[in-house]
Design brief:
This protein is an alpha+beta fold and 180 residues long. Helix content is 32%, strand content 22%. The N terminus is likely disordered. Bound molecules: zinc ion.
């Protein structure tokens, strides 16, 4: 576990995290995410905050799980995004280690350019993608309809929500609140 002081010293990403509008944590509360990469079938299940402090090991595990799986590049994901995914879990009454299926997390500039050039599965690949900033995930959840997932994400109002029913995922980011 790392202290608030070390979070303050952790640079821009860490500093921004302290002012983010995350739900207050009850004593003894944990923020946990379980994520499965649908391309590699690799899973991560980690607690990244406990009693109001971030857990460095858990953040590292999640950053690895959300890496650009095409290039292997790991990026420090926006903690606000991780918090938003926890809120989404709660909104959908997901339990314990129930997994979020990840189609896309962090995307390196090279991967983003390649996807754009190909006009691939992510039809909304933007030149300045929130994925490249570590602020976006494309997700689906077994047993939860895409409609319901989209509705829950929209209700949270934590950023951008994109609906891709033909590709089978919802894009969730912590950029400006908007939807498409
Ligand atoms: Zn996306």
């Amino acid at each position: 576990m790392i202290s608030r002081r070390s979070l303050l010293g952790a640079g821009i990403a860490g500093g921004a995290a302290l002012t983010m509008p995350l739900p207050a944590m009850a004593a003894g509360a944990e923020w946990r995410l379980a994520i499965r990469n649908v391309h590699t079938n690799e899973s991560v299940d980690a607690v990244f905050a406990r009693n109001g402090d971030f857990v460095a090991d858990g953040l590292a595990e999640l950053n690895h799980g959300l890496r650009d799986w095409r290039t292997g590049q790991v990026f420090p994901m926006d903690r606000k995004l991780l918090g938003l995914l926890v809120q989404l879990r709660e909104k959908l009454d997901m339990r314990g280690g129930q997994k979020i299926d990840l189609i896309s997390g962090y995307r390196s500039p090279d991967t983003n350019a390649a996807l754009r050039a190909r006009g691939g599965a992510h039809t909304g690949v933007a030149s300045q993608s929130q994925h490249m900033l570590g602020k976006a995930t494309d997700i689906m959840i077994q047993g939860v309809s895409l409609d319901r997932l989209r509705g829950a994400a929209l209700a949270l109002g934590g950023g951008g929500v994109g609906y891709y029913p033909r590709d089978g995922f919802v894009h969730v980011d912590t950029g400006r609140v908007r939807h498409w």
